Amino acid sequence: MGTLVGHVAPGFVLLVIGFWHLLNHIKLHVQNHKTYHFLPWFPSIKIRYLELYLIMIACSMSIAMELFIGPDRHQPFDTDGTIPSNHLHNFEHSFISLTFFVYAAFAILLDKFVPNAQYELTHLLKGIAFGQQLLLFHLHSADHMGIEGQYHKLLQILILISFITTLMGIGY
Known about the structure:
By secondary structure, the protein is mainly α. Helix content is 70%, strand content 0%. It has one domain. The protein has helices at residues 4-31, 50-69, 88-113, 118-140, 146-168. The longest helix has 28 residues, at 4-31.
């Protein structure tokens, strides 16, 4: 994800998912604002878990790009089994994708097997994913200066807002 495309493509995917959620929440609130319930994900008409499957596919592609396709020799580790210091950022990016993959997988499992409190647990999982992303962005941004450092600070603010609003959605 060290290239412009590697930053723009995941950002575009998150933007599309964000607009999908915004439009669905507006639609649900307008239809019946008195019984509106904040949903963590939205089932599609033909494939119930399409949104979650797409998140899992995008995260898998991101992890593969970071750890196996992008690095030299297509290996994330050195020949002695250690992580080279110039590949640490690849692991940071992969961990961010991994937490969203885990969120999507558990959202499917919770929907299938735990009908009571499934949305609250799913919101908690999403909150944990945003919290972990905030921590990694904070640690990842420690050495960024100039415009890139300011961009990372802005991203940390957006992640913090997402984290707080997701946790607020647990009780709503």
